[in-house]
Amino acid sequence: MKEDIEKWHTRPLHKRYSVLYLDGLYVKLRRETVEKEVIYVVLGVNEEGYREILDFFIGGQESAYG
């Protein structure tokens, strides 16, 4: 499964996108403990008008101190 994700992350992309969106979503992830972490998603609209998820990244943990 990790190999599939790595293959997806390194796939070739179009050279141009008309629009790029970057958004973050806090979700509870279970590792050693369960904590809220942000998942950043990069979405592109190609020149034909189709939306694609270009990539995603797991960011830091939610905190009251920013």
TrEMBL record:
Q: Which InterPro entries match?
A: Transposase_mutator (IPR001207)
GO MF, one term, reads:
transposase activity
Is Nuclease one of the keywords UniProt gives this record? no
Q: Report any one BP term from Gene Ontology.
A: DNA transposition
Keywords assigned: DNA recombination, DNA-binding, Transposable element, Transposition
Is the keyword Hydrolase in the record? no
Similarity-based family? Belongs to the transposase mutator family.
What the protein does comes down to:
Required for the transposition of the insertion element.
Q: Please identify the protein, giving its name as recorded.
A: Mutator family transposase
Protein source organism = Thermaerobacillus caldiproteolyticus
Q: What is the lineage of its organism?
A: Bacteria, Bacillati, Bacillota, Bacilli, Bacillales
